[in-house]
Design a protein that fits this description.
The chain is an alpha+beta fold. Among the domains are: 52 residues, no CATH class; 58 residues, Orthogonal Bundle (Arc Repressor Mutant, subunit A); 166 residues, P-loop containing nucleotide triphosphate hydrolases (Rossmann fold); 109 residues, Beta Barrel (Elongation Factor Tu (Ef-tu), domain 3); 100 residues, 3-Layer(aba) Sandwich (Rossmann fold); 97 residues, Elongation Factor Tu (Ef-tu), domain 3 (Beta Barrel). Helix content is 41%, strand content 21%. The chain binds guanosine-5'-triphosphate (GTP). GO terms for molecular function: GTP binding; GTPase activity; translation initiation factor activity.
């Protein structure tokens, strides 16, 4: 026969693995867990046990039925026969005994399933000659079956005694038929084994005297709880001496039990007996809620009751509660709660499981006092309960939220979260990660583990002390006051930007302060009534975008100058794109309206194509016709600027330390570093210590755009300051600090900037894929420049159609003409790649692109451009490497070293040689070898590089055929832009 695992066997028996394991252990079968194999011997033991149990159950049922039938008969007999005729009664009894023995034999022979319930009951009734005393006496291990047992006994029929629980369960509506269906296959099994054993079994015991006839079933059931409980308390362990007088009765009541079971049982029996004997008689049934003895018809009171030593109410109650509880149930639960639980009528499976649990508990302790057993159980579960209590307390003490850094050791996590390190290790193990207590885990893993304990993990927000934001608290709304808007003027070449800026300044400044000397400090302020506007004095979008590329958001409003006689030109479009990219509103100044060929309506018309629709046409763009030259429309333009700014609700808090941006900076021979600062928030004061970019400074002098000294500069004020220790870069942010703090921060920022510059990676088509993969990019920004408008549009639409895995190409700006510095700045600010079709970058643009590592790709065929972008998105683009010769060396001497090779003694003629360079060996103008350097030494020391004019020793990797006079050309491979 195939060996089964415990769980399979359990399934076969209709029990849980746990139940089977408990049962097997109690039967003395060694079993580890649900995966243990169940051998033949073990199975035989289990089956023998089931058979035994079932036999006992049947016998007990017979006894019960018989006892009740006998009571009825006895009462009839007493009425008709004089009591002094014992012989006649005895003869009758003997007759009945014979009859019943025959019936018992008949039952035992029944091996053909299914046995109908009535047959079984009849059989059971037929063997009811066992005296009640005996019913209370059989071996503890053999489970006293009651009627319900026969009906609802779980697989194996392991139910032993008619306990209160059982009876209540029957009363609670568990029908015999239900159980019958459920367990029929097991019953059949039991019957078969019973049939086998039949030969060994003695006949049923004779009926005792004085038994009352069987009561109606309902009545019996009603009395059963008390009776059963009482029987239980009166049960005597398997001791032949306790078996009542009828000789025939003793034998069937004491079938041989499997030996292992006895071994298990014995210690408990010994414990149990004194306790039970010591128990005082107490009529506690009523108190226990069981039908009271007094309430029952006296005639039907079983004789067994005489032997009953009822438990005190408290004990009995405890027993009841205990027995109802499965092992795992919470002991703290009040008995009332248990009762109500019981009233909920457990499902069929629940009933079976519960009963099985009881059976297994009682398997060795049927005769054992339950009250005695209960403390034992409590003792067993105490550590568990304590552990559970401890766990509950610890859970309460745990924080709801724990703040963690990027990494944390298990031990530290346990400490912070109020957990045991072992719990964390266990959880991680279940998650598939094996860690030790001192091992570090990352934030995500820690968060996952903590979530299992209901603890939220919060990531520590690290303050970058080099970022000014770290020192900036949010302003309270009540501290904010309106500030002047900051305006940038943009437009195509010669459309009149400078003239307009001059016109504004001169109009306003001249009007206010005749004779005032204006200075070009990069920005100026004009006053309109009590309001002010700050203009950035650097026209064009180059400065604007250069600023933005440095992270400075300076401009609130863009004035787009379009010459009415020229209309929309490439730089007009560029300016629109730049402003839009920065999210800054545009006011269109249609300039040169004084010119006869001015066609302002055409300008409006053309601009609609770029989304700038005049208000009178239903759009929201303000158009102001002006003549910069003739100073016309200037006031209207300023009014409109104020209006647009008002809508933006530009506000700042003047009552805090100043923060802003460096607009311009230069080194003045006489004054040292001079910088134009735009105060964006707070008020800058003379004497303030500040950090501008990476420079520390103290405001020594502060002047406005007209050269007037200022003590204080509120928000939106441009000022020229001296006192900086170095020249910051335009676009750098500045902020005021305490002097010491300012010095430290300036130093830290300088350090940080160096690191950033080293690590700076700009978008290029080679890293696009990696950055897409890393989730850093969602789309790829492109700046498109081509020779003719047709090409621009063709490329634009082709690129915009490319879509790889949901990633799109976003054309930030497209235009006709060479790639300019402005394009590179825009690419820098918008993290874009520049694509040139039949155009080239001008010298400035090339330099800036090289310096800022902006990727410029040039194509002559549209198809190539599209293919390359597609390949970049798919991560298939191979970087292009280029050789760069770094030095030339001359071999002057050679040294052959055994087990090392030939070392070339070289003189570096030009450039340098580095350890990672590749060497081309050239002899008489012919290349004879190319390979890596195995070792580069100056005298005896390994060195990284050797400069021109020095000698060195070079050992080539895998090449020893070096001769004096050879020329070594050292080069490195560099990934280059595909320009
Ligand atoms: N008739 C007329 N000419 C103007 C007007 N505004 C500017 N101009 C002329 O247009 C020319 C170019 O003006 P600028 O102010 O230098 O133009 P810009 O946009 O600053 O030019 P760049 O600095 O080269 O980008 C000059 O000769 C101005 O005199 C105007 O309103 N009417």
């Amino acid at each position: 026969m195939k060996k089964l695992r415990v769980y399979e066997y359990a399934r076969e028996l209709g029990m849980t693995s746990k139940e089977v394991i408990t049962m097997m252990r109690r039967l003395g079968i060694s079993v580890q867990n649900h995966m243990s194999l169940v051998d033949e011997e073990a199975r035989a033991k289990v089956e023998a046990f089931f058979a035994e149990v079932r036999k006992k159950a049947a016998l007990e049922k017979l006894r019960e039925e018989k006892r009740q039938a006998a009571q009825v008969q006895a009462s009839t007999a007493t009425a008709t026969l004089p009591p002094e005729e014992p012989s006649a009664e005895g003869a009758k009894s003997a007759e009945r005994v014979q009859e019943e023995r025959a019936k018992v034999s008949q039952i035992e022979r029944k091996t053909q399933p299914p046995v109908r319930e009535d047959e079984e009951e009849a059989a059971v009734r037929a063997t009811k000659a066992v005296p009640p005393e005996e019913a209370a006496e059989p071996s503890g291990a053999e489970l006293e079956g009651s009627e319900e047992v026969g009906e609802t006994v779980p697989p194996g029929g392991a139910r032993v005694e008619g306990t209160t629980t059982q009876t209540e369960r029957v009363a609670s509506g568990k029908s015999a038929a239900e159980s019958e269906i459920d367990l029929s296959h097991l019953k059949r099994k039991r019957r078969r084994s019973r049939g086998k054993r039949k030969a060994e079994r003695p006949a049923a015991p004779p009926a005792p005297e004085g038994q009352t006839p069987a009561a109606p079933r309902e009545e019996r059931e009603a009395t059963r709880p008390a009776a059963a409980a009482e029987q239980k308390t009166a049960e005597v362990p398997e001791e032949p001496a306790a078996v009542p007088s009828a000789p025939a009765a003793s034998a069937p009541a004491k079938p041989e039990l499997p030996a292992p079971r006895k071994r298990v049982i014995e210690p408990r029996k010994r414990e149990a007996r004194p306790a039970r004997e010591a128990r005082p008689e107490s009529p506690g049934a009523a108190a226990e809620g069981r039908p009271s003895r007094e309430a029952r018809p006296a005639g039907r009171r079983p004789a067994a009751r005489k032997l009953v030593v009822p438990k005190p109410p408290a004990e009995a109650q405890e027993e009841k509660v205990e027995r109802r509880r499965p092992h795992t149930a919470k002991k703290e639960k009040a008995p009332e709660a248990e009762v109500s639980k019981k009233e909920r009528k457990p499902g069929k499976k629940g009933v079976i499981r519960e009963r099985l649990t009881e059976i297994l508990d009682d398997f060795t302790g049927a005769e054992t006092d339950v009250v005695e057993a209960a403390p034992a159980r409590r003792r067993r579960s105490k550590p568990k309960r304590r552990a559970a209590q401890g766990e509950a307390e610890r859970a309460q003490a745990r924080p709801d939220k724990v703040t963690l850094g990027d990494r944390i050791t298990v031990a530290e996590l346990a400490e912070r979260a109020g957990l045991e390190a072992s719990e964390i290790i266990k959880k991680l193990f279940l998650l598939g990660t094996v860690v030790t207590i001192n091992q570090e885990i990352d934030f995500d893993t820690a968060a996952l583990v903590l979530s299992d304990f209901g603890i939220e993990a919060e990531r520590e927000t690290r303050v970058d002390v080099t970022e000014f934001e770290a020192y900036e608290d949010e302003d309270a709304p009540e501290d904010l006051v309106p500030r002047p808007p900051v305006v940038t003027v943009m437009g195509h070449v010669d459309h009149g930007k400078t003239t307009l800026l001059d016109a504004i300044r001169q109009t306003r400044v001249a009007a206010q302060e005749a004779g005032g000397i204006t200075q070009h400090i990069g920005a100026y302020q004009v006053e309109i009534g009590d309001r002010k506007i700050t203009f950035l004095d650097t026209p064009g979008h180059e400065a604007f975008t250069a600023m933005r590329a440095r992270g400075a958001k300076v401009t609130d409003v863009v004035v787009l100058v379009v010459a009415a006689d020229d209309g929309v030109m490439p730089q007009t479009v560029e300016a629109i794109d730049h402003a839009k990219a920065a999210g800054v509103p545009i006011i269109v100044a249609i300039n040169k309206i004084d010119k006869p060929d001015a066609r302002p309506e055409r300008v409006k018309q053309e601009l609609t194509e770029y989304g700038l629709i005049p208000e009178e046409w239903g759009g929201d763009t303000v158009f102001v016709p002006v003549s910069a030259l003739k100073r016309q429309g200037i006031d209207e333009l300023l009014e409109m600027i104020l209006l647009v700014a008002e809508l933006r609700e530009l506000k700042a808090n003047p009552n805090r330390r100043a923060r802003g941006v460096v607009l311009e900076a230069r080194l003045d021979r006489g004054r040292g570093p001079v910088a134009t600062l735009l105060v964006q928030n707070g008020t800058l004061r003379q004497g303030d210590a500040l950090v501008a970019g990476t420079m520390f400074g103290r405001v020594r002098t502060m002047t406005d755009d007209r050269g007037r000294p200022l003590k204080e500069a509120p928000p939106s004020t441009p000022v020229e300051v001296t006192g900086l220790e170095g020249v910051p870069e335009a676009g750098d942010a500045f902020m005021v600090f305490e002097e010491e703090e300012a010095r430290a921060i300036a130093k830290a920022r300088a350090e940080r900037r160096r690191e950033r510059e080293l690590a700076r990676t700009r978008i290029d088509l080679e890293n696009v894929f990696d950055r897409l993969q890393a989730g850093e990019l969602k789309e790829i920004n492109v700046i498109l420049k081509a020779d003719v408008h047709g090409s621009v549009e063709a490329l634009r639409s082709a690129l915009e159609r490319i879509q790889v895995d949901g990633v799109r190409v976003n054309v930030v700006h497209a235009g006709v003409g060479a790639i300019t510095e402005s394009d590179v700045n825009l690419a820098l600010a918008s993290h874009a790649v520049i694509i040139g079709f039949n155009v080239r970058p001008d010298a400035n643009a090339r330099q800036l692109a090289e310096r800022e590592k902006v990727d410029i790709r040039l194509y002559r065929v549209i198809y190539e451009a599209i293919e390359e972008i597609e390949r970049a998105l798919k991560g298939m683009l191979e970087p292009v490497y280029e050789e760069r010769v770094i030095g030339t060396l001359e071999v002057r001497e050679i040294f052959r070293i055994s087990r090392v090779g030939t070392v070339a003694g070289c003189y570096v003629r030009e450039g340098k040689v580095t350890r990672d360079a590749t060497i081309r060996v050239i002899r008489d103008g012919v290349l004879i070898h190319t390979g890596k350097i195995a070792s580069l030494k100056r005298f005896k020391d390994d060195v990284r590089e050797v400069a021109a004019g020095y000698e060195c020793g070079i050992l080539l990797d895998g090449f020893n055929d070096v001769k004096p006079g050879d020329v070594f050309e050292a080069y490195v491979l560099e990934a280059v832009q595909r320009v």
